[in-house]
Amino acid sequence: MPHDHHDHDDGSHLDDMTARVMALEKLLTDKGLVDPAALDRILDTYETQVGPRNGAEVVARAWTDPDFARWLEQDATAAIHSMGFGGRQGEHLTALFNTPERHNMVVCTLCSCYPWSVLGLPPVWYKSMPYRSRAVSEPRAVLAEFGLTLPEGTAIRVWDSTAEMRYLVIPMRPAGTEGWTAEKLVPLVTRDSMIGTGLALVPDTTGPDAEGQAA
Amino acid sequence: MTAPDLAIPGTEGAEPHFFAPWQVKAFALTVALHEAGLFAWTEWAEALSARIGGAPLPQRDTPEDHATRYYLDWLGALEDLLAAKGLAEADMIGDMALTWQRAARATPHGTPIVYETGQE
Fold first, then answer.
1. Residues 31-50, chain B: which have Cβ within 8 Å of A?
2. What is the ipTM of this complex?
3. Which residues does Fe(3+) bind (chain A) (predicted)?
4. Domain count, chain B
């Protein structure tokens, strides 16, 4: 016996946010402002092709190639572009080199600017209000939540990203990696170490298990 | 500022970037419109900042709660920017969203939802 009207049980339910985004997509594609194929390409790029491995390759090269490290320090935008990692939002990049005296840490207090071209999509915590509001006011407490306690003699400098300027932290090269090639060093460079909420892994902790943590 | 109420979500694991398909689509639409030259990324950052800046501090939410909050602001910022540029009117978006919801209610599970089904 068919119903004389459809209800939620036999029809599908679209939540408000889903319906609103579908409306926006239809409106913009109907107007010719967005190409549906471009949407798929963008997602493919950010979900599979761009990720923190790009940044890790930059860091590992800086650790093994002093000329490249100098270039990175002077003009990170150009040095990183030379490796094929372009900023799609047209932003400039600055490389922040950690030293025993100074640890660099990156936040975007206003929204969530992030060096997508080298790190992929930002993690949830980076976009969250607690990180954005506390990174500047109490960086040591924030780092402790990431399990990172720095020596008291190490100063912490927090850098606030903007749409025009984004930062890539170059963590210190771990001890015990003398003579390693850049390729071998790449897995030691975690995403968090390039935001400044972690350090590069030390060789003992690498291996099949540690790679999961670095992802 | 009390730390327990403001714990940073998801510091330990590899959380997904998106927790729902609408978040993925809102992200991709924004990047596509930027790449099509309809707005500068600085304009986008200003629109997003304006939305996020007004958000109340969260309680101890899950990473999914944070992602939802963030992408709600994201979508709101996108609508703000499109309205300011005269590219998409809020009323029309609202009407079309209702049409999609009517179309969904009239479409059995497992069948593709067609926009026209929801038109009155």
1. 31-36, 38, 40-42, 44-46, 48-49
2. 0.86
3. 108, 111-113
4. 2
